[in-house]
Write a structure and sequence with these properties.
With 131 residues, the chain is an all-alpha fold. The chain has 4 helices and no strands.
């Protein structure tokens, strides 16, 4: 299956499911390489249909990334809400055990950065709430 068809398949899965579709760990590198190859093909043959393919591949890749980011952010917020009692700040379960499935390494880094940001916001609100 060529990468364009693979992107369409992942796009459909991301649209249809509330969970992250399974992708290879090299997913983002593969997309980057593919788009660069399309760019080079467009430069080499400016009268071909590759410009249409390039624009469509960019649109699909952007949609996939946005949907995945949204799902990861939602998971982080939900997991933070579940991990602390309202107003008490007592941890109920381990956030590491609640990591969403099918994250790439880049997405795992993103997930934990969102968790850390939410923790800081929670600590700030707890301090201001006591004041």
């Amino acid at each position: 299956m060529d990468l364009y068809q693979y992107l369409r398949k992942i796009q459909k899965k991301e649209r249809d499911n509330g969970t992250l579709a399974h992708v290879e760990e090299t997913f983002y590198d593969d997309i980057h390489k593919y788009i660069n190859e399309l760019k080079q093909s467009a430069i080499d043959d400016p009268f071909s249909d590759v410009y249409n393919t390039l624009n469509e591949a960019r649109r699909i890749a952007t949609e996939i990334c946005e949907r995945r980011e949204h799902k990861i952010t939602n998971a982080a917020v939900l997991n933070m809400n579940r991990s602390y009692h309202l107003f008490s700040g007592k941890q109920e379960f381990d956030l590491v055990d609640s990591i969403p499935l099918n994250l790439t390494p880049e997405e795992e880094t993103f997930y934990f950065s969102v968790i850390e940001a939410l923790k800081k916001v929670g600590e700030y609100e707890k301090i201001n709430y006591k004041s």
